[in-house]
Amino acid sequence: MGGMRLAFTKCHGSGNDFPLIDARALALDDAEWARVARALADRDGPVGGDGLLLLTAGDDAHAFGMRMFNSDGSEAETCLNGLRCVARAGFEALGVDAARVKLKTSSAEVAREAELAPGVVTVRTVVGPASTDLADVGVRGALSELPSARAFTAVAMPNPHLVTFVEQVDEAELVALGEYCETGPALIPGRANVSFVELRGPDLFVRTFERGVGLTDSCGSAMAASVLAAGLTGRVPLGAEVRVFNKGGLVRGCAAADRVVTISGNASFLYDASVEIDPATGSVAEVTIHARRDDEARAWGAAVAALA
Questions:
Q1: What whole-number percentage of the chain has pLDDT above 90?
Q2: Number of neighbours of residue 248 by Cβ within 10 angstroms
Q3: Rounded distance between C-alpha atoms, residue 161 and residue 116, angstroms
Q4: Cβ proximity of 158 and 77 under 8 Å
Q5: CA 286 from chain center: how many Å?
Q6: Residue 33: DSSP 8-state
Q7: Could you please report the per-residue DSSP string of 37-50?
Q8: Res 305: pLDDT
Q9: Strand partners, 54
Q10: Strand (E) positions, the chain?
Q11: Which positions are catalytic?
Q12: Strands 122-127 and 261-266
């Protein structure tokens, strides 16, 4: 296949930013999508992002689907910040306000919700039940074998998370543990996302080393895993809505006793563009921005500033 022009929307959920492509009518294989992801999500490239989001066709049980490729080209089981953006794209494409979405290994319920802040498009995602079974998380031993003295809760969202609660986030310590997981050690060969979580009054503050990405300002599934871990360890009441912050912004979260987690947060579209790209090589020739959505960027900026 030679070069092709792909239309995309640059979007973000809680500061987790992505190029989003409506791929329902596109026939690229996994290797080609991985190359597109590496090219478009490259921070040093013309677009940049924490990964690539695809709106995909639905089936008998789902209105539409979502695929997410990390910036290293690997495919993630889920990405909740990205899911909100894909859900919004699906709502707009199909003219609906709620849907069941097909993910790589699971499903999610999504719906439009009242604005988190003025002008901030907000989407509710319901996922789970999540598992805390070590085998489901991909842990091949005891959590005590981690190179850390901290107590971790393992959560499959269904993507793998290791969550621990700290007095204060030590980024160097977090990065060291994240980099250990990135090596695919015998203890957790499929790697995992690692989160350090501070309790700030009734709120949670989450800092995550994301699998395949590194230290990130925001990881939606990590925020969901952190809400569940906080509930399971008695730090917040199960069934109660809590505010979850990270460097990218905030979401509202609730973990139920059945381990179903609801996250509500922004799905902000920043600009609409197209790119000339060769999926066979990943080479990018040109990016053209067709429309900027500055009002949405300003609304999110104001919402974040109000929290500072």
A1: 79
A2: 25
A3: 26
A4: yes
A5: 27
A6: H
A7: HHHHS-TTSSS--S
A8: 82
A9: 21, 67
A10: 4-13, 16-22, 51-59, 62-70, 75-76, 98-102, 107-113, 122-127, 153-156, 160-165, 193-200, 203-210, 214-216, 242-246, 249-255, 261-266, 268-278, 283-292
A11: 79, 219
A12: antiparallel
Contacts of 303 (CB under 8 A, 6+ apart): 116, 117, 118, 120, 249, 266
Summarised one tens digit per residue, pLDDT across range 211-226 is 888 998 888 889 999 9
71 DSSP assignment: T
8-state DSSP, 143: G
| pLDDT value for 148 | 96
- For every residue of 239-286, DSSP letters joined together read T--EEEEETTEEEEEEE-TTS-EEEEEE-EEEEEEEEEEETTTTEEEE
Closest by CA position to 53, among listed 27, 5, 16, 25: 16
- Give the chain's residues under pLDDT 50: 1
Spatial contact of 35 and 6, defined as CB atoms under 8 Å apart: no
Distances 56 to 28, 86, 93, 196 between C-alpha atoms, Å: 12, 9, 11, 33
pLDDT of residue 308: 59
Return the H-helix or E-strand segment holding 304: helix 294-307
* pLDDT score of 2: 66
Q: Give the pLDDT of residue 216.
A: 85
pLDDT at 247: 85
20 vs 8: CA distance, rounded Å: 5
Place of tokens 């250990």: 180
Tokens 């290293």 correspond to 72
